[in-house]
Amino acid sequence: MESGRSSESPEVAKKGKSKTPRKPKDSILKQKSPAEFFADNKNIAGFDNPGKCLYTTVRELVENALDSAESISELPVVEITIEEIGRSKFNSMIGLADHERRDEALYDDFETAKAREKRLAKEARVLEIQAKNAALGKKVKDPAATKAAKGREASYYRVTCKDNGRGMPHDDIPNMFGRVLSGTKYGLKQTRGKFGLGAKMALIWSKMSTGLPIEITSSMNSQNYTSFCRLDIDIHKNVPHIHMHEKRENKERWHGAEIQIVIEGNWTTYRSKILHYMRQMAVITPYAQFLFQFVSDSPEKNVTIRFTRRTDIMPSVPLETKYHPSAVDILLIKRLITETSKQTLLQFLQHEFVNIGKSHAERLIGEMGPDFSPKMSVKSLTPQQIVRIHQLFRQAKFDDPSGDILSPAGEYNLRLGIIKELHPDMVATFSGSAQVFEGHPFIVEAGVSVGGKDVKQGLNVFRFANRIPLLFEQGADVVTRTAMKRINWNSYKINQTQDKIGVFVSIVSTKIPFKGTGKEYIGDDISEIASAVKLLSNAAISSNQKL
Ligand SMILES: Nc1ncnc2c1ncn2[C@@H]1O[C@H](COP(=O)(O)OP(=O)(O)OP(=O)(O)O)[C@@H](O)[C@H]1O
């Protein structure tokens, strides 16, 4: 086909077309590695801004430490230190000479004398209005939060987390910390970690904000050496970039891990969140000992908090389980077929799923159709046959998976933790039996307290998922919504706004339906979980009333 352009010379075409919109360039197909994706979208893993990055880094390291100690039934001892690093010290760490500002007007935080005067006057006005509102009992915003962070100089912190856990095999360390989406917790088991992402996100953030590598020291039980590894991550290839990886003497036969990382953060704005997190972790983990330290060049800013162990009774170790037939999709069935060591379809059904016994498997195969037989090779199933199995799994009736493999905090621990941290006038706890959501068992435990130390008037909601405190996105969470909207506090003669009420809900499962990879909240859209939370909370309030 002839185009109108063909008769014009290139020059004429260029001139004549000067007003027409530029033709978009053909899109070029590109690929991203998982590390690049998460570096570009770090907010979805809870790394939103420097302050939140400091918080999430602490969280990820503490949760790994607890998972590790509990996996060998060791009462956890976790030491976490955040050390503030001034700009000069940071510059000398990276070998950068300190520079004084020469041309002040170049900087984002530069203000003329007039602008400064104007800003101070405005701030004074805001403070005045806030003081008036506070006097009238109205809610006021934290003045620090209203101030723009523009032009703020970066603050750096060295975060160190030491535990007495399992440690890591020497050769696995680089991939555990330097390859996004690699971990040992992908099996079907209740663990705090799940995605194989957290430690790598902390490393990606350190790479983005300070350019410094992570340092890991680790030793496994009765090993006569410790492993030391300094590494960063090749974001483009999603592989570890090892600076040093060596074995060192381990005279004391120490076992555990110590992770050290230098990142940009903001202690001032996230101090209270980090301390709340530690306090709530102590509530749900009263059998652990935590030492939290913040160390600054200005000693008056230093913080040392010891959360002592109050019990030696640890919840049982969660057990790995097999998939329930109603929890699998076609892709997962295909993966299980690839990985199974079983030869026949009958053996496959019997051994790779929970709640399918031999005679049940035979009946299921009979139901699949004439081209299925118990002795047929499972590896030779066609894609259509796999779809048929999936269809049957969705329609057939199976016993619910057992909750025995889960490890709830336990009523005793929950109550102990609440008493230890809040000193309430009254507390009652209640443990539910196992229930099921999409083929995954879950257990809800609830506690309700009245009165206490440092407890605000009204509802104070504490949420835990797989024994992790959840501090963000409170409003959208199933527990908050239930406590606020679905419980009739009046009927228990409790004043929802005046009394100091603590509501504690802990959910454990082989699959917590978190919204996003940041593990910040559980949505309100899963009816099984919503009704269990309501039931258990009501039961705990009733027990509290009886007390
Ligand atoms: N302190 C530790 N002790 C022993 N092993 C550890 C420790 N920290 C990390 N690991 C190992 O490194 C792996 C990767 O950790 P990472 O935090 O990236 O992911 P995860 O904990 O598996 O999952 P998630 O992203 O959900 O936290 C873990 O699965 C664990 O095997």
UniProtKB/TrEMBL annotation:
Ranges for the DNA topoisomerase VI subunit B transducer domain?
Answer: 401-535
Pfam family of this protein, just one?
Answer: HATPase_c_3
Can you tell which superkingdom this protein's organism belongs to?
A: Eukaryota
| SUPFAM superfamilies, sorted | ATPase domain of HSP90 chaperone/DNA topoisomerase II/histidine kinase, Ribosomal protein S5 domain 2-like, S13-like H2TH domain
Keyword Chloroplast present in the record's keywords: the answer is: no
Report which reactions are catalysed by this protein: ATP-dependent breakage, passage and rejoining of double-stranded DNA
Q: What is its EC number?
A: 5.6.2.2
The entry's localization annotation reads:
Nucleus
Entry keyword tRNA processing: no
List residues binding ATP.
Answer: N64, D163, T184, K185, G193, K194, F195, G196, L197, G198, A199, K200, K519
Which residues does the annotated region (Disordered) include? 1-32
- Which CDD domains did the record assign? TopoIIB_Trans
Briefly, what is this protein's role?
Answer: Component of the DNA topoisomerase VI involved in chromatin organization and progression of endoreduplication cycles. Relaxes both positive and negative superturns and exhibits a strong decatenase activity. The B subunit binds ATP.
PANTHER family to which the protein is assigned, alphabetical: DNA TOPOISOMERASE 6 SUBUNIT B
- Could you tell me what this protein is called? DNA topoisomerase 6 subunit B
Protein species of origin: Solanum pennellii
Which gene codes for it? LOC107007896
